[in-house]
Amino acid sequence: MILFGHRRDEYGFLSNFWSSPFKAEGLTWPTVEHFFQAMKTEDSRIWEVFAGLATPLEAKKMGRKAHLRSDWERVKVEIMMTALRHKFGQNPDLAAKLLATGDEELHEDSPYDKIWGWRNEGKDLLGRCLVQVREEFKRKITRQ
How far apart are CA 32 and CA 80, in angstroms? Predict the structure, then answer.
C-alpha cells in the first residue's frame, strides 16, 4: 500500500498539487489541481484565469468559489480521469514512476477530504482513479 499527499516525498508526484504541466482544452495547466478546479465551470474565459494561477492551492480556493456547473457530480470523476491521463501521458518521467508502483494500492492520505482521500472512511476516489490510469498505461504498453 502506498500513501501519498502533498508532501515532497517519494510518492509526492501522485498528488494533484505536483508540478506536472500538460496541455488540454487549448491551455497549458501547471497541475492537475488547476485543471480540475477550472472544469467546475463551463466558462472557458475563467479557465484561463485558473491556468494562470501561481499555485494549486490558489486554484483550489478559487474552485470553491466557482459557479458550479449543473452536471458536476455526474462528471467530476471522468474529469479527474481526463486530467490524470494528460498528466501522465504528457510527462513520461511521471508515467514511469506511476508504472513503477506496480500493483500496489494507491491512497491519498488526506484526513480532511472525504471524497478523494482515503483516511477517516473517505471514498478514496483519487487513489482509485490513479490505479485505473496505471492499468490503462500498462495495457497500452503491452499492446505496443
Answer: 8
State the sign of the Cα–Cα–Cα–Cα dihedral 50, 93, 144, 101: negative
- Enumerate the domain spans of the chain: 2-143
- For the chain, the residue count is 144
Distance CA 3, CA 112 (A): 15
- Exposed, middle or buried: residue 121 (CB in 10 Å: 0-12, 13-18, 19+)? exposed
User: 2-143 has which CATH code?
Assistant: 1.10.357.40
Query: Distance of alpha carbon 40 from its chain centroid, rounded?
Result: 14
Per-residue pLDDT of the chain (144 residues; tens, 9 = 90+): 999 987 778 999 999 999 999 999 999 999 999 999 999 999 999 999 999 999 999 999 999 999 999 999 999 999 999 999 999 999 999 999 999 999 999 999 988 888 998 887 889 999 999 999 999 999 988 776
Could you give the CA distance from residue 30 to residue 39 in angstroms, rounded to a whole number? 14
- The answer to whether 83 touches 35, Cβ cutoff 8 Å, is yes
